[in-house]
Write a structure and sequence with these properties.
Layout (H helix, E strand, L loop, with lengths): L19 H17 L1 H12 L10 E6 L5 H10 L6 E7 L6 H9 L2 E7 L2 H8 L13 E5 L7 H14 L2 E7 L3 H8 L8 H12 L6 H5 L7 E8 L3 E8 L8
Parallel strand pairs: 1-2, 1-4, 2-3, 4-5
Antiparallel strand pairs: 5-7, 6-7
Helix pairs in contact: 2-3, 5-6, 7-8
Bound molecules: S-adenosylmethionine.
């Protein structure tokens, strides 16, 4: 077991959107997701929460934090199928990475996708604590993949706190901080990824999570949540939080 988290800036985050090495590394990520079965992990979790069962006919509002080029969530949308067709998806990332064909593919599935280009800490500062408008409080679901491990300490707590204040359901899939995952990250060169991806993979595992680390950071704040944290496959570590509907008893 790798004792403490070590959060180090990743090379991809320091590269411009159109840097060829960054573009290649984002393609590598898509390949890594296939190897790691990321899409199935997310689809399974979202199906379990049954977020598609809505009380009203209004669209399901989903926010993805650190969405990258939007391709992972597009695969999830396809796999979820037609019962999830009335969805408003916001892809939040500090880089502008979603291209026109990706938006068009979301539209074909009945998903309205928009981007929000903002640093998540600015987003959190807007909505954290005492939200001032509905836009920050009304997500049915916040989902994130390979993102929370970028943050440590106070920043991570701020992001989780904002997510808890503004969503009914939260799901995160992150690198698992374990020796097997670390060994795997050192071997990913065999699938032909570039130097940026090879370096970042190792850093990601060292900054990853295990046990109930995210559960301990989730702010309960008097609201009731059903929490779950578990390993998935060989390399992933998942956390989910579902707000429990409070039943009103007799007065
Ligand atoms: C490892 S990539 C993961 C992308 C996507 N979720 C996936 O799994 O394919 C991390 C993403 O987080 C974004 N990111 C990193 N720090 C951020 C921040 N402080 N605010 C918003 N986005 C950030 C990066 O631009 C990048 O697109």
């Amino acid at each position: 077991m790798i004792a403490a988290r070590i959060v180090t800036p990743e090379a991809l985050d320091g590269l411009a959107e159109d840097d060829p090495a960054a573009m290649r590394s984002r393609c590598d990520l898509q390949r890594l997701h296939r190897v790691m079965g990321t899409r199935s992990t997310i689809v399974r979790a979202l199906r379990e929460i049954n977020a598609s069962r809505q009380e009203s006919s209004r669209p399901l509002r989903i926010l993805e934090l650190g969405a990258g080029d939007g391709s992972l969530m597009l695969g999830v949308a396809r796999a979820l199928g037609p019962t999830w067709s009335n969805v408003e998806l916001t892809l939040l990332d500090r880089q502008n990475l979603v291209d026109a064909p990706t938006f068009a593919r979301y539209a074909e599935l009945g998903w309205t996708a928009i981007t929000e280009i903002v640093d998540v800490l600015d987003w959190a500062a807007r909505g954290n604590g005492a939200p001032t408008d509905n836009a920050t409080t009304s997500w049915d679901l916040i989902v994130t993949n390979l993102f929370l491990h970028h943050f440590e300490g106070t920043e991570l707590a701020v992001v989780l706190s904002a997510a808890a204040a503004s969503s009914k359901y939260f799901f995160a899939c992150e690198p698992r901080r374990a020796w097997l995952a670390l060994a795997g990250s050192r071997l990913i060169g065999v699938i032909g990824v570039n130097a940026v991806t090879r370096g970042d993979a190792v850093l990601s595992v060292r900054a990853g999570f295990r046990d109930k680390e995210l559960t301990k950071l989730w702010p309960i704040r008097g609201r009731d949540w059903k929490l779950g944290e578990y390993p998935s496959g060989l390399f992933s570590h998942c956390f989910r939080a579902q707000r429990i509907k409070l039943e009103c008893g007799p007065e």
